[in-house]
């Protein structure tokens, strides 16, 4: 019973932490609008921006292709 309660509490905590992160919208030079889960990370060494798409898949885009990045309400 204690294990089940611990699992439920950990799941609830993870859900709350996920709900607190803001989504972002990136617009690209080609006119594409990319919605991300959480704030994208810019790697200055490689020149790439890493993000998770709406399906949760890790992706990268060349930072020079990103025109604007705004926090989604």
TrEMBL record:
| Signal peptide coordinates | 1-19
Keyword Membrane found: yes
Q: Which Gene3D superfamilies match?
A: 2.30.30.100
Statement: the UniProt record of this protein carries the keyword Cell membrane:
yes
Which of UniProt's keywords are assigned here? Answer: Cell membrane, Lipoprotein, Membrane, Palmitate, Signal
- The Lipoprotein YgdI/YgdR-like SH3-like domain sits at 23-71
- InterPro entries named among the record's database cross-references: LSM_dom_sf (IPR010920), YgdI/YgdR-like (IPR010305), YgdI/YgdR-like_SH3-like (IPR047807)
Q: Name the Pfam families for this protein.
A: DUF903
Q: Which PANTHER family match?
A: LIPOPROTEIN, POT FAMILY PEPTIDE TRANSPORT PROTEIN-RELATED
NCBIfam families named among the record's database cross-references: lipo_YgdI_YgdR (NF033216)
Protein name (Swiss-Prot/TrEMBL): YgdI/YgdR family lipoprotein
């Amino acid at each position: 019973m204690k294990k089940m309660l611990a699992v439920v509490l950990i799941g609830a905590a993870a859900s709350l932490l996920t709900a607190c992160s803001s989504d972002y919208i990136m617009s690209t030079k080609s006119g594409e609008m990319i919605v991300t889960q959480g704030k994208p990370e810019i790697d200055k060494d490689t020149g790439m921006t890493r993000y998770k798409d709406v399906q949760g898949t890790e992706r990268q885009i060349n930072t020079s292709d990103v025109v604007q990045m705004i926090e989604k309400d």
